[in-house]
Amino acid sequence: MFANQSSIVNCLQERALKYIRATYHFFVHSNLLIALAAVAQCALTYYVLDFDINPAILWIEGTTTLLLYNLSLYLSKPANPQQSPYLRTRWVFKYEWLLWLNSILAVFLLIYALLQIHPYTFYYLAFVGLVSMAYAVPFLRINGQRRGLRSVPGLKLFYIALVWSLSSVGLPVVELYVEGATIDWFMANYLGLVKILFLLICTLPFDIRDMEQDTHYNLKTVPTMLGEPAAINLAYILGIAHLFLIAFSPYSIPVKAGMLLTTLLILVLMKSVVFTSKRNYHTVYLLDLALIVQWFLVFLFRLS
User: Phi/psi at 31 (nearest 5 deg)?
Assistant: First the structure.
């Protein structure tokens, strides 16, 4: 009897793990996780600067992020996706209909949200959009081949962090300003710089994981230029620097507490999971989840 019960429990656990894994892959590979992370980081800006959230700005942030990441995936589609050694590539193009479906829905939501914002904010958004697309769209000619800015040696990491800061901090601030809100520009600019550093922390492990792939495609990223050990040390240094910047920031105690705790959790995660000898390709996506956790912790501390 006990053997049967144990077998049933093991079966249920395996089935639960299977569904959890499938759900995890769905959110990661469909780019919904990174889109939700962008929304969370945008909402965090309102919390830090102590303003009410504008839902239209969150819709814009989420849909544009989803569309840009989908575009990047589509432009990098190999000739035979199902023969790719990378699970993400095989998954995305096995369910390519999903990529097109969420892109179409995102376009309609984006159009609706754009109708709710000030025209000057639209111009700013267009500027950020052009900067973002310049990363993925091959408009440069390098060695006879057309490439995007992602091909510029060492630029990828900093470019992504800058674009995220311009969108998740700059977009809410611009809309608040043109609507007549009084902005504390020191706090806003400080947040923009802190956000760049935080995104460097969350993005660098992806480049470390993808060193082999980036080398295969002749992409010179920070890790491929520094080497893996130096890149890992840099990730820890950036995390410690972020702790100091938050500790001495002009923000409220609840905001500081939530942001400090998130960075500490990231450092622990990198040490115990991401940079261990037994690495899993998907564990690094937990850093995308950390973008949401940061917002959630600040939200909780503000309630207390």
Answer: 70, 10
- Reported as a single tens digit per residue, the pLDDT across 123-163 is 999 898 888 777 766 666 666 666 666 667 778 888 889 99
- Its pTM stands at 0.87
- What separation in angstroms does the CA of 126 have from each of 93, 114, 122? 29, 11, 6
Residue 108: which of 54, 164, 67 has the closest Cα?
A: 67
pLDDT at 254 over 50: yes
- Which residues are CB-contacts of 223 (< 8 A; sequence separation ≥ 6)? 204, 207, 208, 211, 214, 231
248-266 per-residue burial string, b: 16 or more CB within 10 A, e: under 16: ebebeebbbbbbbbbbeeb
Tokens of 138: 């091959």
Interatomic CA distance for residues 34 and 231, integer angstroms: 23
| Of 78, 82, 74, nearest in space to 100 by CA | 74
**Per-residue pLDDT band at 2 (split at 50, 70, 90):** very low
Beta bridge partners of 98: none
Give me the amino acid identity at 234.
L
Per-residue confidence band for 10, with pLDDT thresholds at 50, 70 and 90: low
At residue 54, φ and ψ (nearest 5 deg) are -100, 110
Measure Cα distances from 60 to 35, 36, 43, 160, 213 in Å: 10, 12, 12, 18, 31
Q: Which amino acid is at 45?
A: T
